[in-house]
Amino acid sequence: MPIIDTHQHLWDLQRFDLPWTNSPDAASLKRSFLPSDYAVATQGLGIVKTVYMEVDVAASQRHAEAEYVIDLCKRGETPMVAAVISGPVGTGEFAEYFDRYKTNQYVKGVRRVLHSPATPAGYCQKPEFIKDMQLLGKHGKSYDFCMRAPEIPDAIPVVEAAPDTRFIVDHCGNLPVGNTDEKLYEDWKRGMAGLAKFDRVVCKISGIVASAKKGAWTPDDLAPTINTCVELFGKDRIMFAGDWPVCTLGADSYAHWLHALQEIVKDWSLEDQRKL
What residues does 47 pair with on adjacent strands? Predict the structure, then answer.
């Protein structure tokens, strides 16, 4: 079955600075991951197209990252056909930054990671942030929410305030695998349920494996979160995403994550599996 990977990371540490890879938790990711590496990691898995996802480069390198992946899309030498680029949303500087990309056919949306120290809880509810979300919708671009699980409810009024903008919730809302914090779970589920009420919001089935303990999980450990997202959003508003190489923080390989998901959805109809 042909697969579209809607969340492909690449980075060349000779070209870009990724400060977050300096964390001890990300030690295995502190090397370059190039298109050739992605080709090896996905060989034989049926990946036919990919959408690049920004990798939180240093702020001064955002334009360079965007131009790099736009060029990859143009050249057509890899499966990459589109990109979600980074951007300084919520800073008052986004409109000028975005002007360069607002009509670019390869740029489908924007993301700024909202789970870093630079973006405390409630950051997405700033007037400047909401204004930037409205600007994206005006130009037919989407926004990816990648935020802490208990803060997912913060995104609901943002979606309400930007009625012409499409939104994607990354990584099933980042609920940690094996979570035992009942309040965290309830906040997450309340937020996901609230977002699912909007037809303009879709959920990426991705990323959660990165929070699992390597070598100590099975598909059954991932299934509850995935199944809840499917129940809330329905099978027409979910999409598979690889999140490679970040997925290898918990999975042995890209194939390990993909095969786990395929096991979880094995009883779905072929039509529903294709939609995913």
Answer: 3
How many Å from the N-terminal Cα to the C-terminal Cα in the chain?
A: 11
Q: Write out the H or E segment, with its range, that includes residue 135.
A: helix 127-138
Tokens coding 267: 């009883």
The tens digit of pLDDT for each residue in 211-261 reads 999 889 999 999 999 999 999 999 999 999 999 999 999 999 999 999 999
0.85 surpassed by pTM: yes
In 199-220, which positions are buried (b, 16+ CB within 10 angstroms) versus exposed (e)?
ebbbbbbbbbbbbbeeeebebe
Whether the per-residue pLDDT at 206 is higher than 90: the answer is yes
* pLDDT exceeds 90 at position 116: no
The correct CATH number of 3-275 out of 3.20.20.140, 1.10.4030.10, 2.40.50.140, 3.40.605.10 is 3.20.20.140
